[in-house]
Structures
1.
Amino acid sequence: MSVFKKLRNDYVIWHANRIKIPKFLPSIIVRKKVAFSGRVQKVGFRLEIYCIAQRMKLIGWVKNLEDGSVEADLQGEESYIDFLVNCMRSLKRASVKKMTIIDLPIREDEDSFTIVE
């Protein structure tokens, strides 16, 4: 791993751990596929989603797509997913130009959140 990438990853983890996650009232469990396009690759976008999702105990995955966008399958309380999506949309080192959200059926066969390489 390059020195630059390590520094960036350390910063992303530090930043993601500083985000104050509000106390939400319990909400329904949902699964959503979110596609972010714009300047979202090579800026620690997946790592940021991963760190925040872990903190909020969401399950699913995040991956880069060949077209330069980032796709995430997020399952958990709807209020937490909405919070995560809004965090990512307002991230300063990235630039989300377009976002699509699709509701998906709940999956019972997952219990963690992963970065897909």
2.
Amino acid sequence: MSGSGFEVLRGALLAMTLTLAGSAEGQGPAPAPAPQPLWAGAAPGALGTEAVDIPTLTAFLPTSNPTKTAVIVAPGGGYLNLSMKKEGTDIAAWLNARGIAAFVLKYRLGPRYHNPVELQDAQRAIRTVRAHAAEYGVATDHIGMWGFSAGGHLAATAGTQFDAGKADASDAIDRQSSRPDFLVLAYPVITLEPPYMHAGSRKYLLGDDATPELAASMSAEKHVTKETPPAFLYATYDDKTVPVMNSVLFYEAMVKAGAPAEMHLYKQGPHGTGLAAGFPLLKGWPDVLAKWLAGNGWMDPAAAANVTTP
């Protein structure tokens, strides 16, 4: 990053490092890190200067990161709201406890913003972490994205519609690839076409008058190739909000393309379970995820084996 945006972000990162150190020395818990705008000035396509017009990224850094892995977390909310705690900061805490850096993304939402703004925000987040991997203590090829529900659609779209960056861009961030190195998709929206689409996500991402062609262009299962990053999927058969077939369609597309994928489907469980601590039949799914991450080199195997989801 260059210019004022980097100075603000670097200052916040230094402050967070100092407060984490203070916490480790028994001075009390560190305050939550401050969200940082993804662009130093107005974001592309911004319609104003209110909080809803400013996409942000909040860095949560662990005390140790042996695999130098980072995960950008995209909360769900049907492209209308964001579940910033259950599918945001709670996920960051889970990742930090297992030695992984987390970056919670606040992306712009409908009905004020429509496609392609949301994808631009996600791509900018990936590029930002990659451009400043050294400052965050992460590796440029260990940057994944974890999305829930509509945030899962955003992550799946980032994993199927990416670019290598612009080598001649004046902004160093724009020179970076927007491809995530792996995907975690929790009860994700995948398709925006009948019969399995989530109507609210389609409405708030594409607008009321989306054509079938536009819906197809933003249905992630239609854009999987062998270059799509490895993916882990979790969903429940009983989900009445986002049909489980969304996950099945993406997994099937991954298998057909020869892209690595692992899917875990559970019979019982509603939509929006997060880490599923309150669901005895589901609460083990994050531990299965931890083993997948460790097996691919994105989590310390000791952390995956010894830390259990509450």
3.
Amino acid sequence: MKLYPLQFEPILKERIWGGEKLKTILNKPISSKITGESWELSTVEGDVSVVANGALAGKSLNDLIHSNPTAVLGTEVYQKFGNQFPLLFKYLDAREDLSIQVHPNDELAKIRHNSFGKTEMWYVLQADQDAQLIVGFKEDSNAAEYVENLENKTLLSILDYVAVKEGDVFFLETGTVHAIGAGLVIAEIQQTSDITYRLYDFDRVDAAGNHRELHVDLALDAINYDKIDTYKKYNKNLNQSNTVVDCPYFTTNFIPLDGTIAVNKSGESFTVYMCVDGGFELEYEGSKFNYSKGDTVLIPAALKTFALSGKGSLLEIYIS
């Protein structure tokens, strides 16, 4: 099985809060007016990505991993995770506010759901004027204060609202109460998990008049009640990999590309590029692959030497 840079069919998700920006800004093939998510790379059960380009088109990501795990995942990633692809990559369009939610850590998620936890980061691709996020508490809190405000429908009064703009990055460890606000398009990088505890949904109902399920009791011991700083400052040195997030679950770099850079990898981890602005070309063994804003590409670990060229902004993600 000869590997090459791989793109996958987007897995599109309608959401009550979704819109049409994934099409107008990122050129995703949506027809719905409430498309909230494009899952770019996933092995979540029932939502496994399928190759869209080249000789391996039609193969699932799981198929590729099982055929040659170290070549796809990398020696270190395979040693740590076996045949599991440990990350999930998405683009999100929030036409309306998302629900206020929290994700459990690895320990809780394993016990309750036989799943990874959900540490994640957000890169803001587009922000309407006055767009905001909710990230944690304004001040240190506790379970009793949280429950009291939840019952009194005053939860918003103790949560931290943050104004955001294009290029902002937020890193959310498990336990962080959060919500993406209306008017934002976001690239999300997270552990492979679809476990979310929904705390409050602004009393919204779906088309059938039903409220979405809340998970108030499950969330109580999953929440970090301390005030935390989630905003990540980072450099934007041209034609370099600038570290944005470096955590046990993934490393994300920001590459402002204007010209050509040579890339050399160790083979220990796969690499993913998300094109968040402009476009770029990847050259590998004499073949050229072209990408534009909104594209996501998986570079199997066996591809160690290649070149990136063009004018754009890239997120570079791997496991170190």
